[in-house]
Structure formats: C-alpha cells, structure tokens
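Tokens for chain A. Residues wanted.
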C-alpha cells in the first residue's frame, strides 16, 4: 500500500475504510432520531453577527423548521442579546411576523399583550378579567444564546451539554485570530433542495468532485496534470464531529477576468497564483498553493475562510428529503472601484460554484431512495463524508 495516496486512513484508523450504509440519508425514521439526538442538542449558527443588531431594540426572527421553532434574537434596552421563543404566553400566537426590525417591544396581534425588548410581559389588555396572572413568570420563553467571535448561536437544550467555546475548538488552524470584525456582509444566497441534508452537504466536503462538477465555472483551475483531483493536503476530524478541510488550487493561466480581479483584491480562485494578503486564523502557512479552509461545525454549519474573505453557511435540515442551503459572505469594506469589481467577481464565482455543488443532490437523493444501492464507496479523499456518517450514526444510537 502506498500510504502517501491514502494518508488520512492512517491518521484516523478508527473511522474505517469499508462501504457506508445509505440508510442515514434516506430513512425517515433515522431523520427523526437526528432531530432528537443531534439537532435539539447542538449550538445553532444563526448566520447573524452581533454587529447586525447594534442598537437596543434591534431584532431578527429566524424560523428553525427542523425544531418546529421560531426564535427572536433581540438586543434589549439593557444592551444584552437574547434569544426568545416567538410564542405569546397568552394563548401561543406567533408573536412577531416580520423578519427583522427595531422596536421597544412586541405586541401580539391576537389580544394585544405587550412584551418589552427584554422579553418581559409588560402589558396585558383588560387585565382585571384574568384570575391569577403571574406576570413576572409570563415573559417569553428563553433559548440559550452565546456568541463566538461575534457570531450568534442558540441552543435549545435545557442545559447545553457542550459549551459553544468547546464546540468551536481545534480546526486545521486556530480560527480565532481571523479578522472577522474587519469585514462586512456583502450578500446572501439561499437555495432549497429536495434531498437529505447530508447528501446535500457531502458535495461540499471534498475536492474530488471539482474536476467534473466545476469544470464549467473554473476549468482554468483544474488543468494541472499532476494534481487533477485537488487532493487535500490537510483534513482534520474531531471526536465531536467538527471537521476542517484545507483547499488548494494550483497556479494556472489566468483568464482575462481573473487578471483584472486578482489585481484588485482577494478572490475565491486565487490559490497558488499568490495570495495578496496573509490572514491569521487560516492554514495558509501549512498548505502548498493554499486557497481557503472549510471549517465544519458539526452537524451542518461552516465558517469558511480565505485570504481576504469569509463565508458562513448552513445546510438546514427541513425533512428527511428537504434541505435549505443558506450562505452569507463577507469582504473588507471596498475602498475603490477596483476592489468592488474584485468582490463582484468573487460573488459570482461563489454563486456558480455553489449552484454546481447543488447540481447532483436531488438526483442522487432520488437514486439512493430507489434502493438500487445499499451503500456508498468512499475514497481517502472523501474521509470527511465517512466521518460525518460515522458521527451521525454514533450520536443517534
Ligand atoms: S395569544 Fe397573544 S395576546 Fe392572546
Ligand atoms: Fe464543489
């Protein structure tokens, strides 16, 4: 055996090398176990940052379908961020119907009860006709909220079994020094797909597919005969399910658009063609022709960092055969027209790459549902997919 072509099986022998059952991707009963044993216990990345809610009263509402929950993330008059169930404590009406805003409080549109922006019950209409209202205990139900480097997470467990800090530890690099706060939201994409969340996400967990799936959008990056499948140099897998995959791109002949874009800022396809910036918090120093790092926070969200950009995404499970893929991308505030052109190029490349990555999901999901194959075969380069199935199965036991 030539270990250099299959290095990761040696690093992680406990993960095995055999075929992997398709049942976790197609079985509705397995999805129900994931819901209770994984999704209800995880720190949920809200794809929001603290600076999205700078002032008291600022709020966002996020529906988390897989948990049948709707959450209000709000900054109270006391300056504190809170996550509150979006459920009126009178008779359970959905309290806030819009997606975001700023207010002193929230009034229910069923009978007019009012909650302040700290979640306390502030006013009850026609209160004298109630019998024994214990108003202090009738504030909006709380959800745990914590932040990590400005990112907002919530947790639905009564007492979270793992701290957010522990959940975010130990990727291919120490992610903490990355200058997240120096970048601003440049856009969001959202896709719905009729496929299991793992099948959807698996297309984003290896580079093996790039030579085929991405040959239309970034063919120029895939023509190195010595490295046609972009074999990863560094993949780190953690016992809690987290993963980190560093992606490299060999030097290549630049397209005319790349020549313009590279001259004016960092882009997604730069890799071995020289990174204009060196960012702390990346694995740049450890990887030849490094392009970016995928940092996967188990089970389904990621904080992916490059030299001059980052994006945060999540593969939201909705049902065993439905997933919403959402991503938000961030760049330094552009200070010139050239920087804007470079960023626009990155936005379009990211859009095209993510659409290509989603291209196989639905047909693959349907094919797996047919039962024609009962297992999938995974190469050493697909060890992150194998690890994910192993962890999901372990936590669902
Ligand atoms: S359900 Fe909200 S005031 Fe009645
Ligand atoms: Fe891809």
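Reply:
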């Amino acid at each position: 055996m030539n270990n250099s072509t299959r290095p990761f099986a040696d690093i992680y022998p406990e993960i095995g090398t055999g075929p992997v059952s398709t049942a976790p991707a197609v079985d509705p009963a397995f999805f129900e176990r994931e819901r209770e044993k994984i999704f209800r216990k995880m720190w949920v990345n809200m794809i929001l940052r603290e600076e999205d809610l700078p002032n008291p009263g600022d709020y966002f509402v996020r529906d988390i379908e897989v948990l049948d929950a709707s959450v209000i993330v709000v900054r109270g008059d006391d300056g504190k961020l809170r996550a509150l169930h979006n459920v009126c404590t009178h008779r359970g009406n959905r309290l806030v119907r819009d997606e975001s805003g700023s207010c002193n409080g929230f009034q229910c549109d069923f009978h007019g009860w009012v909650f302040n922006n700290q979640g306390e019950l502030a006013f009850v209409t026609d209160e004298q006709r109630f019998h024994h209202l214990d108003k202090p205990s009738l504030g909006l139900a709380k959800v745990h909220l914590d932040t990590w480097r400005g990112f907002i997470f919530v947790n639905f467990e009564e007492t979270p079994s793992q701290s957010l800090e522990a959940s975010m530890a130990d990727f291919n690099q120490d992610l903490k020094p990355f200058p997240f706060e120096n970048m601003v939201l440049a856009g969001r994409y959202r896709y719905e797909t009729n496929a299991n969340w793992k099948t959807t996400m698996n297309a984003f967990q290896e580079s093996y597919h790039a030579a085929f799936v991405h040959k239309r959008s970034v063919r120029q990056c895939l023509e190195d005969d010595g490295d046609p499948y972009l074999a990863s140099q560094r993949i780190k897998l953690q016992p809690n399910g987290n993963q980190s995959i560093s992606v490299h791109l060999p030097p290549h002949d630049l397209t005319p658009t790349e020549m313009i874009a590279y001259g004016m800022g960092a882009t997604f396809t730069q890799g071995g063609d020289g990174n204009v910036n060196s960012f702390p918090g990346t694995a740049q120093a450890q990887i030849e022709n490094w392009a970016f790092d995928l940092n996967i926070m188990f089970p389904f969200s990621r904080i992916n960092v490059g030299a001059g950009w980052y994006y945060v995404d999540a593969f939201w499970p909705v049902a065993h055969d439905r997933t919403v893929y959402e991503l938000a991308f961030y760049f330094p505030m552009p200070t010139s027209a050239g920087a804007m052109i470079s960023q626009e190029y990155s936005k379009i490349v990211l859009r095209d790459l993510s659409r290509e990555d989603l291209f196989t999901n639905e047909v693959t999901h349907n094919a797996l549902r047919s039962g024609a194959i009962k297992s999938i075969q995974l190469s050493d380069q697909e060890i992150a997919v194998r690890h994910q199935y192993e962890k999901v199965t372990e936590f669902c036991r």
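DSSP finds ten helices and 19 strands in the chain. The chain has a mean pLDDT of 93.
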